[in-house]
Amino acid sequence: MATSGTAATAKNAPGTWRNWAGNVRATPARVVTPASVGELQEAVRRASEEGLRVKAVGTGHSFTAAAATDGVLVRPQALSGILSVDRTAGTVTVAAGTALKDLNRDLARQGLSLANMGDIMEQTVSGATGTGSHGTGRDSASISAQIRALELVTADGRLMTCSEKENPEVFAAARIGIGALGVVTSITFAVEPLFLLTAREEPMRFDRVTAEFDQHVAENEHFEFYWFPHTGNCNTKRNNRSQGPAAPPGAVSAWIEDELLSNGLFQAVNSLGRAVPAAIPSIARVASRALSARTYTDIPYKVFTSPRRVRFVEMEYALPRERAVEALRELKAMVDRSGLRISFPVEVRTAPADDITLSTASGRETAYVAVHMYRGTPYQAYFTAAERIFTAHGGRPHWGKVHSRDAEQLAAVYPRFAEFTAVRDRLDPDRLFGNDYLRRVLGD
Fold this sequence. Notes:
Elements: E1 9-11, E2 17-18, E3 25-26, E4 30-33, H1 37-50, E5 54-56, E6 72-74, E7 82-86, E8 91-95, H2 100-109, E9 112-113, H3 125-130, E10 147-153, E11 159-163, H4 168-174, E12 183-190, E13 192-193, E14 196-205, H5 206-211, H6 213-219, E15 222-227, E16 233-242, H7 251-275, H8 280-290, E17 294-298, H9 300-304, E18 312-320, H10 324-337, E19 346-351, E20 366-374, H11 380-392, E21 396-397, H12 407-413, H13 417-427, H14 436-442
Parallel strand pairs: 4-6, 5-6
Antiparallel strand pairs: 1-4, 2-3, 7-8, 8-12, 9-13, 10-11, 10-12, 14-16, 14-17, 15-16, 15-19, 18-20, 18-21, 19-20
């Protein structure tokens, strides 16, 4: 099929697109893989002329239909790589389709690093930032909060540059734009000289970790923990900057912890639990005791991230940090008294307040509580019960994870919600970048 003079790849019948978890599917009319910003601009203009909607998709790690479309699906992976490094300003500009794993490795080779990141690095930089992906941090916030500038193609095919000084109202919104404002082409991140982190992983009882939660957050640069439902057991992780020397896990111990236990055995355990749900509490008690304390020191991305090969569906809510412990205790009580069988641990992380319009941490100190279910296991009852607890505590759902909230409900927990929708109305009045998910969460 002709591509209007571009070298962008196009297909008439690309088949069905599925996300990583397999819970979202879409059949676009056309898929394009632009090899340049100019090709992307032309693809957007052409779609507009044909009355087709446009969505960009990364690696599909979102659990919502944020990237689903029946129109033109843009795959930006050909727009990849570091475009420039400014060591004086402490920034790196990277093309939007770059995978986080490639960015992290390239930065490390140049003696640089992001300040903080999530625990998965398969996503593209635009996909991760656009949905508000985050790690855990007392002082350092999400990847989106580390953005210093970005460029995006708007609905009229223009290339817009945004920063605190240039189009600042768009910059405030587009750092977490959920794909509603345009297609991001490049992102400039703040970076710093490569440093070392010492990680301390330690089992801890639920009652103790919740009683000492504020203390752990205050005393550590990066604190998180996992609670194993049907037990009183948790595993904690504390990451703090270190003078070194580097002392990464040994090859054998790393394989045992990160591959055998966290992926291979965990896959088998979840498969057994899906087949025999009644066995899950017993399995959880054994599995939660299998982890032992360990300490290691390495460069940031090797400490922050870990391989995730067991597929799941996830819901995560951002709570006011002062409400997190109460919500967790309610969640545990709900699971204990229910007939639910939960084989995945509950993950708890934190973030400082930031100034991004629709950030889950916008304007408030935040704690994140994430619940998961093994792929193929019914999750609705568990997620509905958990969501009821989280929303009662003023929770905000992660934009890329399962939730049932709509625009009216979200406007009540985001003080700057109307700012975002006003920017959207100005940049995309005809909803070229719209889809059913955005209609639900942002309104018409």
